[in-house]
Structures are given as C-alpha cells and as structure tokens.
Amino acid sequence: MRVLVLNCGSSSIKYELMDMDNGKSLARGTIAKIGEHGSYIEHESGNTKIRNEVKVANHEAGFKIMMSHLMAGKGRVIKDASEVSAVGHRVVHGGEGFSDSILIDDGVIRKIRECIPLAPLHNPHNLAGIEAARKYFPKIPHVAVFDTAFHQTLPQKAFTYPIPYEMYEKFRVRRYGFHGTSCRYVSARAAELLGRPIDSLRMVVCHLGNGVTLDAIRNGKSVETSMGLTPTEGLMMGTRSGDVDPGVVYYLSTAAGLSLERIYDILNRESGLLGVSGVSNDMREVIEQAKKGNPRCKLAVEMFAHRLKKYVGAYAAVLGGIDALVFTAGIGVNSPLIREKACSGLSFMGLELDRAKNRAAIGREADISGSDSRVRVLVIPTDEEKMIALDTVEVARGLGKKAPSDALGSKTRRRA
C-alpha cells in the first residue's frame, strides 16, 4: 500500500510517498514559494536529488507539478497515479471535534473550516492541499491527521484558562496544543528504545524546532502541553514570543499606538530568537554569533535554555517525576549546547547527562544519559510523515484508530 503524505503551508507543499508494505520512503520533496517569484521544487528519490525552478501559481498547480516528478523524469518512482492507494493530510487544528485521525468527507472539511479562526495561519492552507488532492485523486481515501488530536486527553484542569468560563462555553477558548503527531511518534519510539510498555512511562518530550512544544506524557497520553489556543503560547520559539504578560498587548496598543493586528504579527513573526537576537530565527546562526561575542545572541540562547529548563521542571512536577526526557526536532536533535544547558542543574530530580555522548549525538537517535542517571535522556529524530502514513493506513482499512506504539517497528527511519 503506497501512501502519499502532504503537509501544506501558506506557500509550500511538503510531501512524501511511502510504501507501507515495507516501511520505506520512495520519494520526498518540497514545493516552495507558491504564488511567488522564484518558486521551485526540490525532489529526492533514492540517490537522485532534483531542484527545478518552476512557476507555481497555487496549491493545485503545485500538486500537479509534484505528481509529474513522482511519475516521470529522473525522480520517477511510480508509473501512474493509480499506484497511490491513499493520501494522508497534516491538519494543524481540529478543535474539540477530532480526537483521532479521520476519513475526509465534506462534513470533515466543514469542521476543519470552522477551526480556521483558531489557526488562521495554517488551516486555510491545509484545506487548499486537501481540495487539490481530492480533485486529483477523487476515488481513493483521504485521511486528516490533526496536530491537536493527541492533546485531547488533557484533563479539564489543564486545558481550561482562568478567564470567565462562558468564554469557553461560547467560543471554545481553551488550551489545544500542537505538534501532537510528533509527540505521539517520539513517545512511542522512546518506549521502544527503553524496552518498556508506553503505558508504564512518564516522560517529557521536547519538540524544539522553529516552533517549540513541550509535552508531559503519562502512560502514552498527553496530560499537559505548552502551546495553547494558538501556537503562540508556551516557550520562546524562532519568531514567536511564547509566554508573555497578556497586559503587554494592552500596553503596546496604548503606549505605542499599535493595532491588535500589528501586535499579533509582532508576537508571531518578529519575536522569539529573531526578536531578541536581532540576527536570525535559526538557532545555529544565533549560537554562532553568540560564540563570536554578540551580547543579544548570548541573551537569546540563555533565555531559550532557561525557559526550556523551567518547563521541564514544571512538567516533572505535574507527572510526579519522570522516567525519560526526550529531545526531538531540529534544535532538539542537532544542538548539544541547548540540551546541555537544559539539563544542567537537574541532578536533584535524578537526571545526569553524559557530556561526551551528548556532544556526539547530532542528527541521530542516542541515549545521552549519564551512567548514574535515574532519568533516561534520549535524542530521537521525529518522523511525523511516518506517523501520518501509519494513521492513514489504519483509517483507510476501516479501523479508524491510532496506530499502536509497536507499529513503528525496527524499520523506523532515523533522520532529523
């Protein structure tokens, strides 16, 4: 069974075609700058890597270009579209309506559209990808896999905001959380590496990329998570502020005369690492400049690590202790410095880092725990695409349930 996995952003389509009979990736790629000057496709299959500049007017045009690369030329991996059995779609926000992945029909599309006010930067583009794919593949199953679904197990005391309760009743203002597909994959993989049933573990997963999520997981279920109603809440990120005093919004509107739209834009696109460093939203560049003595870059690195450690401690308290601390996503997998700073001083909770193992663990799975550490510290590259593909297979076959942790198997790809 061959599954096409799609992740559609405002100006991009990320895709991967997987053969689920053997767990292998046949091809993957990105179509970038959709609707902009200089749009292009990067396509990879086996040892073949292609980069072509092509005019891509919209997501529908991008989808056709993607399929042409899958079916023809040096990157060809299928003869025709009939070899694709199902399509799995990443959808950022499913609100309270979706706690599992689901077969897409017109009713599901309506509910995803209703969630646009909760994720205006993501859901419209996820829908554009769904609509383009359904036109191209009208007769095969399409499955929606929601970033928010994994966090529907949060207890009410964790997802409810301390504002007038009618705001929740009328407008569903609550914590939803994101990066759930990544957290679910990584926690399941951690259980495999530890050789323990996932329903016996307490772990904190640190998804550290341009977007950042920390998740407290007990017995395989999310019980606390850092992002909230929107992806702006939580830890300091690449361009998002994370937690700030809500009074900042009122103060900036009055003292600086800024509109709500402008403040929202600042908090989402001009803050975080970029806003503090004044250099970049890329942690690699910020660390490089910090080493050269840039004081604002030094501050950005220290702030990021401080807030990360603060959340780890808080979530360990929520769980009553932890069995594993897991780092994933771009920063989590590739930055020994951030991992070391985050773990420094946590010996009081039984966590010891092996610095040599930590420095050696870049871009790959590793146990970087010290020999005396009661808490296992793991580095696990995430594979959201594989998780989406597994769910798509389950739903397409009529089961409609989340893939069990042991479905990841030993053939799980290990990449950042």
Secondary structure: number of strands: 14
Q: Quick one: CATH superfamily of the largest domain?
A: ATPase, nucleotide binding domain
Oligomeric organization of the protein chains: single chain
| Share of residues in strands | 15-25%
- Going by CATH, the architecture of the largest domain would be 2-Layer Sandwich
Structural class of the helix and strand makeup?
alpha/beta
Largest sheet: 8 strands, mixed
CATH topology of the largest domain: Nucleotidyltransferase, domain 5
Q: What percent of residues adopt helix (DSSP H or I)? A: 25-40%
Our Rg estimate from Cα atoms comes to 21 Å
Q: Strands of the biggest beta sheet: in what spatial order? A: 5-4-3-2-1-6-8-7
CATH class of the largest domain: Alpha Beta
Shape: globular
What is the string of SSEs from the N terminus onward?
Answer: EEEEEHEEHHEHHHEEEHHHHHEHHHEEH
Please give the domain count.
2
Count of runs of 4 or more consecutive helical residues: 15
Mean pLDDT, all residues: 91
Question: How many angstroms does the end-to-end distance come to?
Answer: 25 Å
Low-confidence stretches: 399-416
How would you describe the overall organization of this protein?
The chain is an alpha/beta fold and 416 residues long. The protein has two domains: 2-146 and 385-407, Nucleotidyltransferase, domain 5 (2-Layer Sandwich), CATH 3.30.420.40; 197-379, ATPase, nucleotide binding domain (Nucleotidyltransferase, domain 5, 2-Layer Sandwich). Helix content is 37%, strand content 19%. The protein has helices at residues 59-71, 106-114, 123-136, 156-159, 166-171, 180-194, 247-255, 260-269, 272-277, 283-291, 295-319, 329-334, 336-343, 355-360, 384-396, and strands at 2-8, 12-19, 24-32, 40-45, 48-53, 86-91, 102-103, 142-146, 202-208, 212-218, 221-225, 324-328, 366-367, 376-379. Helix 1 packs across helix 3. The longest helix is centred in the last third of the chain and has 25 residues, at 295-319. The chain is globular and about 60 Å long. 46% of the residues are buried. Residues 399-416 have low confidence and may be disordered.
